[in-house]
Amino acid sequence: MAQTLSQNDKNVLSRIFESHPSGSLATSPIDPTLPNSLPSFPPGVLSELRELEFATINPLDSANPSQESLRQSIDRLTELITSYPQYSSAYNNRAQALRLVHGDDLYSEAVRDSTLWSDLCSAITFASPRQPRQRVCELQGQILRSAYAQRGYLTWKAAKNLETTGNLNNLPPELTGLDKEAIEDKARSDLEAAGRYGDQEAKKMAISANPYARLCGNIVEEAMIAELQNMRDSWNGGQSHAFAKGI
Protein backbone atom coordinates (compact mmCIF):
# COMPACT_ATOMS: atom_id res chain seq x y z
CA MET A 1 0.00 0.00 0.00
CA ALA A 2 1.35 3.43 -0.94
CA GLN A 3 2.42 5.60 1.97
CA THR A 4 1.52 9.30 2.18
CA LEU A 5 3.84 11.99 3.48
CA SER A 6 2.91 13.95 6.56
CA GLN A 7 2.92 17.75 6.38
CA ASN A 8 6.10 17.76 8.45
CA ASP A 9 7.76 15.39 5.96
CA LYS A 10 6.72 17.66 3.11
CA ASN A 11 8.16 20.69 4.90
CA VAL A 12 11.46 18.92 5.50
CA LEU A 13 11.72 17.81 1.88
CA SER A 14 10.87 21.31 0.72
CA ARG A 15 13.72 22.74 2.79
CA ILE A 16 16.13 20.07 1.56
CA PHE A 17 15.52 20.68 -2.12
CA GLU A 18 15.57 24.46 -1.94
CA SER A 19 19.00 25.84 -2.72
CA HIS A 20 18.67 28.11 0.31
CA PRO A 21 16.05 28.88 2.96
CA SER A 22 13.09 30.83 1.66
CA GLY A 23 13.72 34.56 1.56
CA SER A 24 17.32 34.41 2.76
CA LEU A 25 18.63 35.76 -0.54
CA ALA A 26 15.67 37.90 -1.47
CA THR A 27 15.47 40.88 -3.80
CA SER A 28 18.21 43.46 -3.35
CA PRO A 29 17.43 46.14 -0.75
CA ILE A 30 19.43 48.70 -2.76
CA ASP A 31 17.40 51.48 -4.37
CA PRO A 32 19.49 53.10 -7.14
CA THR A 33 17.15 56.10 -7.20
CA LEU A 34 18.12 57.14 -3.67
CA PRO A 35 20.85 59.80 -3.37
CA ASN A 36 24.08 58.58 -1.82
CA SER A 37 24.05 59.22 1.91
CA LEU A 38 25.05 57.67 5.21
CA PRO A 39 23.28 57.78 8.56
CA SER A 40 24.39 60.74 10.73
CA PHE A 41 26.22 62.58 7.92
CA PRO A 42 24.85 65.63 6.06
CA PRO A 43 25.57 65.52 2.29
CA GLY A 44 28.21 68.26 2.44
CA VAL A 45 30.18 66.58 5.22
CA LEU A 46 29.91 63.20 3.52
CA SER A 47 31.28 64.58 0.26
CA GLU A 48 34.29 66.02 2.08
CA LEU A 49 34.91 62.75 3.91
CA ARG A 50 34.76 60.78 0.69
CA GLU A 51 37.41 62.99 -0.89
CA LEU A 52 39.70 62.59 2.12
CA GLU A 53 39.18 58.84 2.11
CA PHE A 54 39.86 58.46 -1.60
CA ALA A 55 43.12 60.36 -1.22
CA THR A 56 44.05 58.06 1.66
CA ILE A 57 43.40 54.74 -0.06
CA ASN A 58 44.47 55.74 -3.58
CA PRO A 59 48.11 54.59 -2.99
CA LEU A 60 46.75 51.09 -2.28
CA ASP A 61 45.15 50.80 -5.71
CA SER A 62 47.80 48.47 -7.10
CA ALA A 63 48.45 44.75 -7.34
CA ASN A 64 51.06 44.76 -4.57
CA PRO A 65 50.98 47.89 -2.39
CA SER A 66 54.05 48.33 -0.24
CA GLN A 67 53.94 47.75 3.50
CA GLU A 68 54.84 51.40 4.01
CA SER A 69 51.88 52.52 1.89
CA LEU A 70 49.61 50.20 3.83
CA ARG A 71 50.80 51.49 7.18
CA GLN A 72 50.42 55.10 6.12
CA SER A 73 46.91 54.50 4.81
CA ILE A 74 45.93 52.65 7.98
CA ASP A 75 47.23 55.54 10.11
CA ARG A 76 45.30 58.10 8.06
CA LEU A 77 42.13 56.05 8.15
CA THR A 78 42.56 55.80 11.92
CA GLU A 79 42.77 59.60 12.11
CA LEU A 80 39.62 59.84 10.01
CA ILE A 81 37.80 57.38 12.26
CA THR A 82 38.95 59.24 15.37
CA SER A 83 37.46 62.45 14.00
CA TYR A 84 34.32 60.78 12.61
CA PRO A 85 33.72 57.62 14.68
CA GLN A 86 30.52 56.68 12.81
CA TYR A 87 32.00 56.88 9.32
CA SER A 88 31.39 53.30 8.19
CA SER A 89 33.36 53.41 4.94
CA ALA A 90 36.62 54.20 6.74
CA TYR A 91 36.17 51.17 9.00
CA ASN A 92 35.58 48.95 6.00
CA ASN A 93 38.63 50.22 4.14
CA ARG A 94 40.85 50.00 7.21
CA ALA A 95 39.79 46.36 7.59
CA GLN A 96 40.76 45.69 3.97
CA ALA A 97 44.16 47.29 4.51
CA LEU A 98 44.70 45.32 7.72
CA ARG A 99 43.97 42.08 5.88
CA LEU A 100 46.75 42.93 3.43
CA VAL A 101 49.11 43.45 6.36
CA HIS A 102 48.12 40.61 8.71
CA GLY A 103 46.31 38.07 6.53
CA ASP A 104 42.94 36.35 6.99
CA ASP A 105 43.62 33.97 9.88
CA LEU A 106 41.36 34.84 12.82
CA TYR A 107 43.42 32.49 14.99
CA SER A 108 46.61 34.53 14.56
CA GLU A 109 47.78 36.89 17.26
CA ALA A 110 48.42 39.64 14.73
CA VAL A 111 44.79 39.64 13.59
CA ARG A 112 43.55 39.28 17.16
CA ASP A 113 45.55 42.30 18.31
CA SER A 114 44.43 44.45 15.36
CA THR A 115 41.09 46.16 14.81
CA LEU A 116 40.29 44.05 11.73
CA TRP A 117 37.29 42.19 13.14
CA SER A 118 35.88 45.11 15.10
CA ASP A 119 36.28 47.36 12.04
CA LEU A 120 34.04 45.08 9.98
CA CYS A 121 31.47 44.95 12.77
CA SER A 122 31.53 48.75 13.06
CA ALA A 123 31.21 49.21 9.30
CA ILE A 124 28.11 47.02 9.29
CA THR A 125 26.61 48.69 12.35
CA PHE A 126 27.06 52.26 11.12
CA ALA A 127 26.09 51.60 7.48
CA SER A 128 22.98 49.54 8.23
CA PRO A 129 19.57 51.15 7.73
CA ARG A 130 17.76 52.26 10.85
CA GLN A 131 14.70 50.16 10.00
CA PRO A 132 14.98 46.40 9.23
CA ARG A 133 13.34 46.54 5.78
CA GLN A 134 14.43 50.04 4.84
CA ARG A 135 15.90 50.45 1.36
CA VAL A 136 19.44 51.78 1.08
CA CYS A 137 21.37 53.87 -1.43
CA GLU A 138 24.20 52.58 -3.61
CA LEU A 139 26.88 53.83 -1.21
CA GLN A 140 25.37 52.07 1.80
CA GLY A 141 24.92 48.93 -0.26
CA GLN A 142 28.55 49.02 -1.39
CA ILE A 143 29.85 49.34 2.18
CA LEU A 144 27.53 46.65 3.55
CA ARG A 145 28.29 44.33 0.64
CA SER A 146 32.03 44.57 1.23
CA ALA A 147 31.94 44.40 5.03
CA TYR A 148 29.56 41.44 5.16
CA ALA A 149 31.55 39.58 2.49
CA GLN A 150 34.84 40.15 4.30
CA ARG A 151 33.48 39.10 7.68
CA GLY A 152 31.70 36.12 6.16
CA TYR A 153 34.84 34.92 4.41
CA LEU A 154 36.98 35.32 7.55
CA THR A 155 34.40 33.45 9.61
CA TRP A 156 34.03 30.66 7.06
CA LYS A 157 37.79 30.21 6.96
CA ALA A 158 37.85 30.09 10.77
CA ALA A 159 35.22 27.33 10.73
CA LYS A 160 37.24 25.29 8.25
CA ASN A 161 40.41 25.62 10.34
CA LEU A 162 38.76 25.03 13.71
CA GLU A 163 39.83 21.40 14.02
CA THR A 164 43.46 22.00 13.05
CA THR A 165 44.33 25.10 15.05
CA GLY A 166 45.49 25.35 18.63
CA ASN A 167 44.77 29.06 19.14
CA LEU A 168 41.05 29.03 19.94
CA ASN A 169 41.45 31.84 22.46
CA ASN A 170 42.42 34.23 19.66
CA LEU A 171 38.96 34.13 18.09
CA PRO A 172 36.73 37.21 18.36
CA PRO A 173 34.29 37.11 21.31
CA GLU A 174 31.36 36.53 18.92
CA LEU A 175 32.91 33.21 17.83
CA THR A 176 34.60 32.06 21.04
CA GLY A 177 33.21 28.79 22.38
CA LEU A 178 31.19 27.97 19.26
CA ASP A 179 31.52 24.65 17.46
CA LYS A 180 32.26 24.35 13.75
CA GLU A 181 28.62 24.20 12.69
CA ALA A 182 27.69 27.31 14.67
CA ILE A 183 30.61 29.26 13.19
CA GLU A 184 29.60 28.12 9.70
CA ASP A 185 26.07 29.36 10.40
CA LYS A 186 27.41 32.81 11.26
CA ALA A 187 29.57 32.83 8.15
CA ARG A 188 26.65 31.81 5.95
CA SER A 189 24.46 34.53 7.45
CA ASP A 190 27.06 37.18 6.56
CA LEU A 191 27.58 35.77 3.08
CA GLU A 192 23.83 35.77 2.48
CA ALA A 193 23.71 39.42 3.55
CA ALA A 194 26.56 40.26 1.17
CA GLY A 195 24.65 38.44 -1.56
CA ARG A 196 21.52 40.48 -0.90
CA TYR A 197 23.58 43.64 -1.32
CA GLY A 198 24.93 42.48 -4.66
CA ASP A 199 28.03 40.32 -4.11
CA GLN A 200 27.45 37.40 -6.48
CA GLU A 201 30.44 35.36 -5.30
CA ALA A 202 29.31 35.65 -1.68
CA LYS A 203 25.83 34.62 -2.79
CA LYS A 204 27.22 31.48 -4.42
CA MET A 205 29.24 30.66 -1.31
CA ALA A 206 26.16 31.10 0.89
CA ILE A 207 24.11 28.74 -1.26
CA SER A 208 26.83 26.08 -1.39
CA ALA A 209 27.33 26.39 2.38
CA ASN A 210 23.64 25.88 3.13
CA PRO A 211 23.19 22.76 5.29
CA TYR A 212 20.05 21.73 3.41
CA ALA A 213 21.93 21.89 0.11
CA ARG A 214 24.71 19.79 1.66
CA LEU A 215 22.12 17.33 2.99
CA CYS A 216 20.58 17.10 -0.46
CA GLY A 217 24.01 16.33 -1.88
CA ASN A 218 24.52 13.63 0.73
CA ILE A 219 21.14 12.08 -0.06
CA VAL A 220 21.96 11.98 -3.77
CA GLU A 221 25.37 10.48 -3.03
CA GLU A 222 23.85 7.79 -0.80
CA ALA A 223 21.23 6.99 -3.44
CA MET A 224 23.94 6.61 -6.09
CA ILE A 225 25.97 4.32 -3.82
CA ALA A 226 22.87 2.20 -3.15
CA GLU A 227 22.11 2.00 -6.87
CA LEU A 228 25.66 0.93 -7.66
CA GLN A 229 25.46 -1.73 -4.96
CA ASN A 230 22.23 -3.04 -6.47
CA MET A 231 23.95 -3.22 -9.84
CA ARG A 232 26.88 -5.12 -8.32
CA ASP A 233 24.50 -7.52 -6.60
CA SER A 234 22.72 -8.25 -9.87
CA TRP A 235 26.03 -8.77 -11.68
CA ASN A 236 27.32 -11.05 -8.94
CA GLY A 237 24.11 -13.02 -9.30
CA GLY A 238 25.15 -13.99 -12.82
CA GLN A 239 23.18 -11.46 -14.88
CA SER A 240 26.24 -9.56 -16.09
CA HIS A 241 29.92 -9.24 -15.25
CA ALA A 242 31.06 -7.19 -18.23
CA PHE A 243 31.62 -3.86 -16.46
CA ALA A 244 32.13 -4.92 -12.86
CA LYS A 245 35.74 -3.70 -12.75
CA GLY A 246 34.70 -0.28 -13.93
CA ILE A 247 32.37 0.39 -11.01
Brief account:
This protein is mostly helical and 247 residues long. Helix content is 61%, strand content 0%.
Structural features:
247 residues, mainly alpha, Serine Threonine Protein Phosphatase 5, Tetratricopeptide repeat, 2 domains, disordered C terminus, globular
The rough form would be described as globular
**Rg computed from alpha carbons, rounded to a whole number of angstroms:** 24 Å
Largest sheet entry: none
Structural class: mainly alpha
- Multimer state: single chain
SSE order: HHHHHHHHHH
Q: What this model shows, in words?
A:
The chain has ten helices and no strands. The chain folds into two domains: 36-209, Tetratricopeptide repeat domain (Serine Threonine Protein Phosphatase 5, Tetratricopeptide repeat), CATH 1.25.40.10; 214-246. The two termini are 34 Å apart. Mean pLDDT is 81; it is low at 12-25 and 234-247. The chain is 61% helix and 0% strand. Helix 2 runs antiparallel to helix 3 (67-83) and helix 8 packs antiparallel against helix 9. It has 247 residues and is mostly helical.
How are the SSEs placed, and which strands pair?
Blueprint (H helix, E strand, L loop, with lengths): L6 H11 L25 H15 L9 H17 L4 H15 L6 H5 L2 H12 L10 H23 L19 H17 L3 H9 L2 H26 L11
Helix pairs in contact: 2-3, 3-4, 4-6, 4-7, 6-7, 7-8, 8-9
